[in-house]
Design brief:
The protein is of the alpha+beta class. The protein is built from 13 helices and 10 strands. Strand 5 (39-43) and strand 6 (46-50) form a beta hairpin. The mean pLDDT is 83.
């Protein structure tokens, strides 16, 4: 049987689906987030159960089908070209993430914590509302790329860290770090909770994750800032204080570097849509 090769149209970075999918190939890398219902996903003949919070990464060499097992079904796909995927994976220095995902013979499944997943879904829904105009498309793409990069950060933890026998205390530390009440603390407060000095923790963290503690925490903060700007009325100054940035100007600089837009401009765009 000849299978379809699904190719997103120009300017389509993400799409929501309310039914399953017949057997097909993907033209691009694809991150699939399962938002509602339960389904059976088959990748190259290997079956996976998908529930709320399940996320799958698939490449172009996989045959793929989705069988919805409940009446209500919703999953959202993020489309990534191979060039983009190589660029995203390069962010995780110390881990050859692109090679890791390319050598897999089936999909990679991760289960995102419910609270984190809820925020990601809300962000994607808000981003989808941005108009597909030449002015807004780059901003829309930057937002979606940042979410894709964040989701990719779960893969080294699930796939690579386990192979390197990550200490149980570090695994627990990273799980706690995913919550805003923790990643908004000062680094010395986080360090004290582990019983290690800052230099010791930084060295161990880099050894097992491939990126610095600062990079990891800053990424968590900026993703949370994006959520707060879209879902709260807090001022940009208050958000920067909540996230623990030392100055408003530094927060604005970090945010613009990550998303290609200042938080003030994003807030104005959100208000104009209401």
């Amino acid at each position: 049987m000849k299978l379809d090769r699904l190719t997103p149209f120009n300017g389509q970075f993400t799409a929501a689906y309310y039914v399953g999918a017949r057997p097909h190939y993907n033209a691009n890398w694809e991150i699939s987030l399962f938002i509602e219902g339960e389904s059976l996903n088959s990748y190259n003949g290997t079956d996976f159960k998908a529930v709320y919070g399940s996320v799958f990464l698939t490449g172009t060499k996989y045959t793929h089908k989705i069988i919805a097992e409940t009446t209500k079904h919703l999953h959202r796909d993020i489309y990534i070209t191979d060039e983009e995927m190589r660029h995203f994976c390069a962010f995780y220095r110390g881990v050859n993430l692109y090679r890791l995902i390319s050598e897999r013979e089936t999909a990679i499944k991760i289960q995102v914590p419910a609270g984190t997943f809820k925020d990601i879904v809300a962000d994607l829904s808000s981003i989808e509302m941005l108009p597909n105009t030449p002015v807004e498309l780059p901003t829309k793409k930057n937002f979606i790329d940042s979410i894709a990069i964040y989701l990719l950060s779960f893969i080294p933890k699930n796939e690579y860290f386990q192979r390197r026998n990550m200490p149980a205390w570090l695994d627990e530390f990273m799980q706690k770090l995913a919550h805003p009440e923790n990643f908004t603390q000062k680094v010395y407060q986080l360090t004290a909770a582990t019983g290690y000095s800052h230099s010791q923790l930084a060295r161990i963290f880099k050894k097992y994750t491939g990126f610095t503690l600062f990079e990891y925490i800053d990424n968590l903060k900026l993703n949370y800032a994006l959520t707060m700007l879209q879902t709260t009325e807090e001022s940009v100054l208050d958000i920067s204080i909540t996230l623990g940035y030392d100055s408003l100007s530094y927060f604005i600089k970090r945010f613009k570097n990550a998303y290609g837009i200042t938080p003030q401009k994003l807030r104005a765009m959100i208000k104009n849509r209401v």
